[in-house]
Amino acid sequence: MKKISVHDAIGHVLCHDITQIIPGEIKDRAFKKGHVIKEEDVKVLLSLGKDNIYVWEKKEGYLHENEAAERLTKLAAGMGLEFSEVKEGKINFIAKYDGLLKINTDLLLKINLLDEIIIATRHNNYPVKKGDKLAATRVIPLIIDEKKIIEAEKIASGKTIVDVMPYKKVNVGIVTTGNEVYHGRIKDAFGPVIRKKVEKYGCNVIDQKIVYDDTEKICDSIKDLIDKGAQMIICTGGMSVDPDDLTPSAIKKTGANIISYGAPVLPGAMFLLAYNDDIPILGLPGCVMYAKTTIFDLVLPRVLSQDTITIEDLAGYGHGGLCLECNECTYPQCSFGKGW
């Protein structure tokens, strides 16, 4: 590119966007990269403080910011994304559908350690809606050495940084335990809460079994729901450490692989996660009945996006796993569950 006087720019091709800012009124693009300067543009450019502008001179081995942003987007973008128009070396990533945002944080760090290019994202494992802005690329200089982009492409090596995993709408079976509920001494408060939360993701509760405190009965109820076609089992009640709280041992008795009994999340410490083959079994602590947001809200979208959760994943929730229990819950816009 070369720098020339605005008065000499008529007929030349602008090599960068020019922004117009009027405080409190507008911040928008006045001239777009590639615009051919006309005589009537000179007065406008001067009003924007542009006595001189840069016009494009293609040079081998160097990229304009917009071209570099497009290549940066291509190396970072995975499934479930749409994109904004490139503007001043920036491209926004937009969710194409509802789903779970997955960020390759290791690869993101490596790319951002390179000079003169950045990728900024929302948090990993964030439940997103269609149309949400998820990430953005930005190229710092107007003209960048192509070697920087080539280096980023080599680091990515075909791996993506940003993906939206769609939710799977599954059949849910609920097993509610407790003599007090079974005998009608108190009304079940878990069922309505669970139905509301899973139906928000398009899931269907096929049955809810209310059973008394008996290991064999709880175990048989879980197996029966699986036989009926349940693709996820949610167990409520009997999740503490009292002698008559039998749900964890009953889940284990089904032959399920217990990933963890307990998680560093408040509310939700007495949470259990297990898998019976590929069917997740969630043991929910009592706080799910009354707390606005708990570990259930962190784990549910991950399970429904078929993200296999490990004990390391659950342990990682300790950083950011303390809910502030605000009077007005703003999750997932708050810090809860965002540390990992």
Concise summary:
By secondary structure, the protein is an alpha+beta fold. Helices cover 26% and strands 28% of the residues.
Question: Could you characterize the architecture of this molecule?
Answer:
By secondary structure, this protein is an alpha+beta fold. It has 3 domains: 54 residues, Molybdopterin biosynthesis moea protein, domain 2; 104 residues, Aldehyde Oxidoreductase, domain 3 (Alpha-Beta Complex); 146 residues, 3-Layer(aba) Sandwich (Molybdenum Cofactor Biosythetic Enzyme, Chain A), CATH 3.40.980. Helices cover 26% and strands 28% of the residues. The chain is built from 10 helices and 19 strands. Helix 2 packs parallel to helix 4. The model has no long low-confidence stretch (mean pLDDT 92).
Helix content: 25-40%
How many H/I helical runs?
A: 10
Assigned CATH architecture of the largest domain: 3-Layer(aba) Sandwich
**Main β-sheet: number of strands, strand sense, barrel status?**
6 strands, mixed
Structural class: alpha+beta
SSE ordering: EEEHEEHEEEHEEEEHEEHHEHEHEEEHH
CATH topology type of the largest domain:
Molybdenum Cofactor Biosythetic Enzyme, Chain A
Radius of gyration: 27 Å
Organism: Tepidibacter hydrothermalis
Keywords: Magnesium, Metal-binding, Molybdenum, Molybdenum cofactor biosynthesis, Transferase
Family: Belongs to the MoeA family.
Function: Catalyzes the insertion of molybdate into adenylated molybdopterin with the concomitant release of AMP.
